[in-house]
Sequence to fold (96 residues):
Amino acid sequence: MATNTDRITEVERNTIVLQTEVIYLKQSLNDANILNREAESKLTEVRQEVAVLKQRLDEQTKRVEMWSNRLWGLISILIGAILALSSGLIVTLARK
Fold:
């Protein structure tokens, strides 16, 4: 039969074990919080980089569209010039 002293000793041992576990859990929580803050910081950096890259992509897309429009304008002028020269050549050859 366990005496009160034995019970008190067992409770004290259990208390020490539980206190050790609490300390370990607090340290684990602190480590997790530190990792979480680091991850949030890196996520913010990545989001900023993505925003910059999106802006650059938008600017590049606008430039490509502008040059595409200019190119098609030039092609249409060249086709018109070729057709004009061809028609002039055909008329000249037809007169001979």
User: Anything to note?
Assistant: The mean pLDDT is 94. The first helix runs from residue 4 to 95. The chain has one helix and no strands. The radius of gyration is 41 Å.
